[in-house]
Amino acid sequence: GIFDAEDPYFALGAAVTPEMQLAPSVRHLQVLGMDPERMVRVLPGRLHEPFASSEDRDPLIYALSMSACKDSADVMACFGLNTTDIELIPAQTEGADLAWIGP
Fold first, then answer.
1. Pairing mode, if any, of strands 96-98 and 89-91?
2. Dihedral sign (CA 75, 70, 65, 80)
3. Are the C-beta atoms of residues 64 and 89 closer than 8 Å to each other?
4. Mean pLDDT, residues 18-42
5. pTM of the model
6. Is there a contact between 59 and 18 (Cβ–Cβ < 8 Å)?
7. Biggest CA-to-CA distance, the chain
8. Distance between CA 42 and CA 60 in Å, rounded?
9. What separation, in Å, do the N-terminal and C-terminal C-alpha atoms of the chain show?
10. Is the per-residue pLDDT at 36 higher than 80?
11. CB–CB of 49/22 below 8 Å?
């Protein structure tokens, strides 16, 4: 798959950048399960600034340590989300289970 690349974070950026370019209202993307020791958050950064150089318009990708979450049975709660009513839906084409949390 795409995330078997030498640099999976680069591959993640390549996968989500086109979608984020089409959706300026998306303020962040959180990824679970990409790395068992880290939670990954993608922010648009300067992606939608028309006068920024192309190098400066890449999304920002943060891989945060999950050491503070080791005691929690609910990994998604480590993102500060209320996950009591969340329903993950299988997305076979993406090879993942997805949930929409937002307006």
1. antiparallel
2. positive
3. no
4. 83
5. 0.62
6. no
7. 45
8. 6
9. 31
10. no
11. no
Q: How far apart are CA 49 and CA 47, in angstroms?
A: 6
Secondary structure (H, E, C), the chain: CHHHCCCHHHHHHHHHHHHHHHCCCCCCEEEEEEECCEEEEEECCCCCCCCCCCHHHCCEEEEEECHHHCCCCCHHHHHCCCCCCCCCEEECCCCEEECCCCC
- Which two structure tokens, joined as six digits, stand for 14? 């390549």
Alpha-carbon distances of 24 from 11, 47, 72, 86, rounded to whole Å:
21, 9, 33, 24
Measure the CA–CA gap between 20 and 8, rounded to whole angstroms: 18
Residue 58 pLDDT > 80 = yes
